[in-house]
């Protein structure tokens, strides 16, 4: 039997919301493998199916820049929310978003910034503020004739969620407004894929196995299992696939239906959603 540490139990509990003893039992039943233990808890009905997996709660701020057909998103990390909410920190991440939008290079830390480089500037900030400050995730979109939007959700006095989204095939003056509505939805609903076709096959197989185990334990008639399992899978797709989600402003309308109002060929090409403290 694998050695089950208190740290592993705590990590599994954070990921699933299950009780401490349930987490300990799950790890024991699965030789300490956290991924298998998560599925085991779900099969037993002791964990949520769509629990988002956050990393250690890093602090920081996010900012975005939208300039014509270019959109940029920058995450700047630090150790405390006190520093993240500071005017200098927020001004720096805003300036970095503008810098990334204006430059196509992927080597952001080597870009010229404030009389030095981005890397050196952040090192100086770390020394001045007394805590580790480093560049987080950086994303840049260049749209070739599509509708593009960049959105920042502010909480606790700084940007904590950033979204970039691009529509293609969208026509008319309302395309940009629809792109903005989709960006707002993405910030709230946290989809992971544009469509169900993008979900990796191994992830679908894993979900199906969990749903099969759940259905058997529910005591439903065996002949009804395939339909029940497919229903659960469709529910899973609505959680992770943007186009199948109910639009946050009108849940009866899917995001795909909303985008279709921008033209018969309109569709979401891509999106990025980044939240402070989450992978």
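Q: What amino acid sequence fits the structure above?
A:
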């Amino acid at each position: 039997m694998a050695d089950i540490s208190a740290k592993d139990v705590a990590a599994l509990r954070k990921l699933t919301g299950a009780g401490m003893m349930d987490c300990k039992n799950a790890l024991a039943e699965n030789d300490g493998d956290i991924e298998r233990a998560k599925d085991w808890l779900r099969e037993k009905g002791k964990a949520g199916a769509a629990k988002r997996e956050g990393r250690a709660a890093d602090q920081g701020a996010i900012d975005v820049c939208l300039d014509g057909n270019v959109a940029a998103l920058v995450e700047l990390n630090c150790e405390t929310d006190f520093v993240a909410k500071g005017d200098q920190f927020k001004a720096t991440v805003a300036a970095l978003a503008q810098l990334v939008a204006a430059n196509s290079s992927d080597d952001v830390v080597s870009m010229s910034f404030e009389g030095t480089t981005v890397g050196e500037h952040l090192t100086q900030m770390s020394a001045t503020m007394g805590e580790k400050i480093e560049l987080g995730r950086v994303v840049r979109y260049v749209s070739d004739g599509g509708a593009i939007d960049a959105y920042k959700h502010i909480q606790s006095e700084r940007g904590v969620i950033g979204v970039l989204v691009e529509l293609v095939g969208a026509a008319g003056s309302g395309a940009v407004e629809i792109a903005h509505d989709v960006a707002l939805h993405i910030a709230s609903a946290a989809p992971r894929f544009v469509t169900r076709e993008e979900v990796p096959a191994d992830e679908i197989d894993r979900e199906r196995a969990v749903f099969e185990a759940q259905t058997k334990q529910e005591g439903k008639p065996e002949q009804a299992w395939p339909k029940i399992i497919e229903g659960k899978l469709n529910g899973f797709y609505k959680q992770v696939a943007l186009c199948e989600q109910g639009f946050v402003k009108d849940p009866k309308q899917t995001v795909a239906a909303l985008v279709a109002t921008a033209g018969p060929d309109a569709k979401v090409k891509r999106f990025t959603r980044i939240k402070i403290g989450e992978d």
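Q: And what stands out in the fold?
A: Strands lie at 59-67, 70-78, 112-113, 116-117, 134-142, 147-155, 158-168, 246-247, 250-254, 267-275.
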